[in-house]
Amino acid sequence: MALYIFTVSSLQCYQCLINPPPGQYYNTTKRLCSHFDHSDTFVVECPFSTMCMKQEFYLDIQNGVRISAVLRDCAPQKHAYHDIENGRWFPKTEVLEPYSEGCTDIDNDKGERTTPTSFCYCRQNLCNTSPNTSHEGYTDIMGVIMVFNLMKFINSLR
């Protein structure tokens, strides 16, 4: 009698965050984009994604200075919902395919004050590693500082 064990590995992507999420239930400060170095610390499994994502966004501040930041993660493709079968509700999960490979620039095209953003999607393991066009480490740190200061300012208005 032979026993076969099949393992299905999910896609692996780099994950780094611009700022840590609220709460202290897990330690994500090790994955801040300002520390991104292509190491295993930033590698995550993506069981509900078929694509990796890289988001680069820009913030224009005074005197023509532009701050950019890069976020890397699994593409958000998980769709969780409830379905009824035989008179009972059951949780269901699907992986949607709303993205196509490549990059798309989202810019201010309706007169709104929005931040120009570029979204890139790819299907290979760790394919969201490509650097942005500027000095990534420096701009990520500046982005974190800018977000922190903006949040302090918004909170002071309340």
Question: What this model shows, in words?
Answer:
- The chain is mainly β and 158 residues long.
- It contains one helix and eight strands.
- The chain has one helix at 136-156; strands at 11-14, 43-46, 52-60, 66-74, 78-85, 88-95, 102-106, 117-122.
- The strands form three sheets. The chain has a four-stranded antiparallel sheet.
- A hairpin with a 5-residue loop joins strand 3 (52-60) and strand 4 (66-74).
- The radius of gyration is 19 Å and the shape is globular.
- The N and C termini lie far apart (70 Å).
- Residues 3-7 and 132-142 have low confidence and may be disordered.
- Keywords: Glycoprotein, GPI-anchor, Lipoprotein, Membrane, Signal, Transmembrane, Transmembrane helix.
- This is (African queen) hypothetical protein.
- One of its GO terms (cellular component) is side of membrane.
- It holds the Pfam family QVR.
- One of its GO terms (biological process) is regulation of synaptic transmission, cholinergic.
